[in-house]
Amino acid sequence: MWRHAVTTALAVAVLSACERVVSVTVPVAEVRLVVEARLERARGAVAADQVIRLTTTEGVFSSSGTPPAATGATVRVVAADGAITPFTERAGEPGVFVARAMPLVVAAPYTLEITWDGDRYAATETMQPAVTLDSLYFTVGNARPGRPSGLAASIRLLDPAGERNFYLWDQWVNGRRQVSPDSTTFTRAVLSDDILDGAVITDFTPYGGIILQPTEVVRLRQLSISEQAYRFYAALSAQTGNDGSPFAVPAGSVRGNVANVTRPGRLALGYFIAGEYTEREARVGGLLSSGEP
Questions:
Q1: What is the mean pLDDT of residues 77-106?
Q2: How many CA atoms lie within 13 A of 186 on its CB side?
Q3: DSSP 74
Q4: Would you give the DSSP letter of residue 212?
């Protein structure tokens, strides 16, 4: 009887110890500026409207789901000849800055300058020349696990021989961009021609995991980017696609090219790129194809 009472007392003590509440103080990270800035135009055009989006980081346990806008910034782009293009914050869209009919010159450098929250930021990129996107068609895509297979957008292009080319693709379905601040697709499709120089690239599906439905209209844009921009997006995709498996890349921060001139230690996130593009648009048909139509 006594032995049973002691055993019971020990069990109660162990269970009580398991219920101990441990308070953990999570440090609040400093708010950082996030820059999504492109200068892009269709090949052959002289000028094009430009949009730059500025947001900020937020707390780990934030449940807003939408990045807070960085409002009230001063944004401008300076060309090599000293010409300045100011960007104006769009009415009704906080943190979205626009410039109308901005002229752009291939192979010329452009410097983005941002003043926000007492700091000045800057980044420089050179306008990259476009490579022709020969065709857009549809092949059997690689559906995500647990989803049915179907058609995905495929492309064909000839990579110029003897040049170093780097590509970024964007895709719209029925007018909706597949990688955006509120989309469920997080990684951007980028490619280097290091092992494909001068080759015909065919049946390539930049967004093969996005299965399309009959009659949907697909627009696919092929943007030329710099090697530094390619390395940034490749590293960013590796981080956002990290599944925690033993073969995944180690978790770490990805540094962009937007420097804080005022306080170098307070880095901005994101990247400033500049390049020409070519694009194609097609409606999804009912037939499967394995190559160019």
A1: 97
A2: 8
A3: E
A4: B
CA distance 237 to 272: 16
φ/ψ of residue 22, rounded to 5: -110, 125
Question: How far apart (Å, rounded) are the C-alpha atoms in residues 152 and 183?
Answer: 18
Among 243, 265, 245, CA closest to 255: 265
What would the two tokens of residue 292 be? Answer: 């160019």
* Total Cβ atoms within 10 A of residue 238: 15
Give the count of beta carbons closer than 10 Å to the beta carbon of residue 229. 24
Please determine, for residue 274, whether its predicted confidence score (pLDDT) is greater than 70.
Answer: yes
pLDDT tens-digit readout, 185-225:
557 899 999 989 999 999 999 998 888 999 999 999 999 99
Phi, psi at 235, each rounded to 5°: -70, -40
Amino acid at the residue 11: A
CB 114 within 8 A of CB 270: no
Neighbours of 55 (CB within 10 A): 22
**Whole-model pTM?**
0.82
Backbone angles phi and psi of 96, in degrees to 5: -105, 120
| Pair of tokens at residue 127 | 């306008």
